[in-house]
Amino acid sequence: MPARSETVWLDDGNIILQAEYTQFKVHRSILSRNSTVFRDMFSFPQPPSTPSIEDCPLIHLPDSAKDAQNLLSLLYDNLSACNSRSELPFSVLASMLRLGRKYEIHSLRDEAAHRLRQEYPKTLQAWTSTCRNDFTSGIAETEHCIFDTLNLALEASLRTVLPAAYYECLLEEVVKIMFGIKLGDSNTLSRLLPESQAVCILARDKILNALPKYTLSYLDDRKTIPCRSCISTVQCISARAELICKLWKPAPNIRLALFEWSDVLGKGLCGNCFEEAKKHHAEGRKKMWDNLPSFFGLLSWDKLEDFE
């Protein structure tokens, strides 16, 4: 039996929405003012056969009760929160993006998309900022993981966040990519779609193969270390060999693909070789980022568009 929502049941409402087994009594005017889809829907007279409750038309929505609850709560109680810098729970952000797009509530859709673009940006500079401790997230650390984010971005055609989101999925263990991640203390399992699993596994090999060509090219090219102005050739050749063993054996870490330079990446090198390695690392890291979409079978950064 359908049940009334405990939070969105307004006595003076004039229409009832039902999502799954939950009913919401709301106002046509509120829905019409915020959504062109609802506005168009209500512009046509309801047929006599339309079911009603308490003399209010009953409209069935093909959405989850949780999404409907989040959407209506935002429209009635907390719309201003969408424009604040406070964190939003992932479930609320997902509802904003999913239903905001479906019902053409652009303010909700755009704010949710903005927050996801901040977390998974298009530029290397912005990505670097998200990896630092002082980065302020717009998404609360609640019961969700990167797999949920990628699934949502794919569902909503938020293509500009896909390269960075896919890459973050690769930072998880392969077994988790294939079989999912258990969320917190619950029995809920977050899983990638089978197509996304295949994309990740193929991209992982491509990125690892690209490491010596891009980010770690300073170790693969004997002309870089020792450099022309090296002041301790024997020392730097030895340090280079040690770095190769440390960073590449038994297999390179996928995190190194976009890892920001740190002194450990040039440990043991003379000052001149250290600076040369740092320069080559920055150039290679930028090339890795520029090619990131291609590893996942996506269009180049400048051709990725959202909601198309």
How is this structure best summarized?
This protein is α/β, with parallel strands linked by helices and 308 residues long. Helices cover 48% and strands 9% of the residues. It is built from 13 helices and seven strands.
Straight-line N-to-C gap: 39 Å
Number of DSSP helical runs: 13
Question: What structural category do the secondary elements indicate?
Answer: alpha/beta
Strand adjacency order, main sheet: 1-3-2-5-4
What is the CA-atom radius of gyration, in angstroms?
A: 25 Å
The proportion of residues forming helix, as a percent range, comes to: 40-55%
Q: How many DSSP E strands? A: 7
Shape designation: elongated
Question: How would you describe the oligomerization state of the chains in this entry?
Answer: single chain
Protein architecture, described:
- The structure is a single chain.
- The protein has 308 residues and is an alpha/beta fold.
- 48% of the residues lie in helices and 9% in strands.
- It is built from 13 helices and 7 strands.
- The protein has helices at 28-34, 36-42, 65-78, 90-102, 106-119, 124-130, 146-155, 162-170, 174-179, 194-210, 217-220, 233-248, 271-295; strands at 3-9, 15-19, 22-26, 52-53, 56-61, 181-182, 189-190.
- Strands 1-3-2-5-4 form a 5-stranded mixed beta sheet. A two-stranded antiparallel ribbon has the order 6-7.
- A hairpin with a 2-residue loop joins strand 2 and strand 3 (22-26).
- Helix 1 packs across helix 2 (36-42).
- The protein is elongated and about 90 Å long.
- It starts with a strand and ends in a 13-residue tail after the last helix.
